């Protein structure tokens, strides 16, 4: 088995590839020692090669992984496998968001990643959902269901949270604020895509791609460009790492 | 390499006599020593000639300060600067010492943020904090600071800095038309007058001609080092190359030139013997952008930590400092000052508009250095370099040069993200 392990900032994902197809996958919270979590998760499989990616990749290399690739390359590999020929990826993970351009052979030709702050990331959405007393699922659904929108100006998580609080206290409806938060993230992603230049279709990976409102709003902004979401968007990186393992 | 652990030498009595915050500075000294040990002395296969530069770091807060104080005792002016546009030749001609001041460390930023706005350039904040916290012996030792008008953060900070140390300002124009160059020449003349006043003696043609030679020789030595770094495979790490460029700003120029040339002799031997640092096939990266003041080794550390090597810095602490020489044929004071100003105007800082020559220069250095990709580095809130980034990026796209832009400050909080971006960039080059 070729095992890809994505040690992300919020969750650890594993993908198990038997040489022809994805036979298993798992997701668990990273915890304090993500490499121990990962080790537990892969313990039951007969691994031929283990490839680590994500923030904890070097930690994993020090413990169990045979090779390491960045999450940029891992997502490129995973998406190109799911959607051959796709030239643009938006990945929104727990701690960062990135846009990756691929060449015709699926190699990374350019990428952009948000820098220091959490703006436009999964964590940003989590914090905003919590301050509106939604679960993540409710948050996306509520935002999708409403047509009315308020406006969030701040991109900084800390400032955006105080903006949300002041909107709450002005009596603005919860679903409208939720919609505004989603819009602000979609604007940011569309901006990153415009900066780097994108093809058609655009693939959307990472846990945030499971949020239906994010997908719809991004699609709207891209005006006619198809946004493709893999069946298991969270494990794209882990899958890419597993696929990389076949060549190690 | 070293049997005894590396230490930055303490000089508590001298520091106290300079009115420094000694207990605090001593902690900073230990931290810098540790960082140096980890970043520099852990490198494999360093040239023997680096021992001199290691010692320059060990004596950064001692030996070199003693030299400055000795110069002062002889009545020679000691002038602190922040920018490659301040003509060092004039200070040297008056028998003085010109030193680049501290400004590359996160440690002094909180001192600055007690007074200055937070959202300005980290180099300006760091420098200001060193003075405000009394934790830079160079700042404490200088007669005065000579600033310039190359950015808004600096030019407004000089007004505040002046309340702590006498600070004069040279106006650097923002365009290069004839009337701007006339103004520039007048500013150079004012600078000469100011230096003569402090030195208590006029600068003669002979003095200036000698100083021009000293500085040209220093630049030639740095050019030589740079072209040896361009050899494939490169005989010296980018970290060591950067360190020498940083030390260039505070070392005694004649001695420094000798040591750089001696190191270059050794590097030529290494090239003959096929010595490669770190390995023959290491990915070669060039850095372009804003200065990396000592001890800012952040990008070099990440790039070389990932197994690649940096072979060129297109930066003020890099080629912008030494790529141009002064015409040595002028004989009258007036024509010498014109020749000097003409050399300084060749520096292609992003504070100028338009600045097409820099775009050409970046691509030229990329070709000359046989690099495989460019990392464009801009300090946070450095508007001119940050915006000029667009044109550098477009040029790289046109030339099909792998390109990565990084905007960062001195803090460690973005190390994880930067590491990912740099490793992904190296993967991209390698594919």
Please provide a written account of the structure:
The complex is a heterodimer of chains A (248) and B (431). Chain A is an alpha/beta fold and 248 residues long. Helix content of chain A is 42%, strand content 21%. In chain A, the strands form two sheets. Chain A has a five-stranded mixed sheet with strand order 3-2-1-4-5. Chain A has a five-stranded mixed sheet with strand order 8-7-6-9-10, with helices on both faces. In chain A, helix 3 crosses helix 9. Chain A is globular, with a radius of gyration of 18 Å. Chain A starts with a strand and ends with a helix. The mean pLDDT of chain A is 93. Chain B has helices at residues 12-17, 22-41, 50-58, 63-73, 88-93, 109-113, 122-132, 137-141, 152-161, 178-199, 205-229, 238-247, 253-272, 298-305, 319-322, 333-344, 356-368, 383-398, 415-430; strands at 78-81, 97-100, 144-148, 167-170, 284-289, 309-314, 373-379, 403-408. In chain B, helix 14 crosses helix 19. In chain B, the strands form two sheets. Chain B has a four-stranded parallel sheet, sandwiched between helices. In chain B, strands 6-5-7-8 form a four-stranded parallel sheet, with helices on both faces. With 431 residues, chain B is an alpha/beta fold. Chain A binds chain B through residues 55, 69-73, 96, 107-111, 113-116, and chain B through 403, 407-408, 413-414, 416-417, 420-421, 423-424, 427-428, 431.
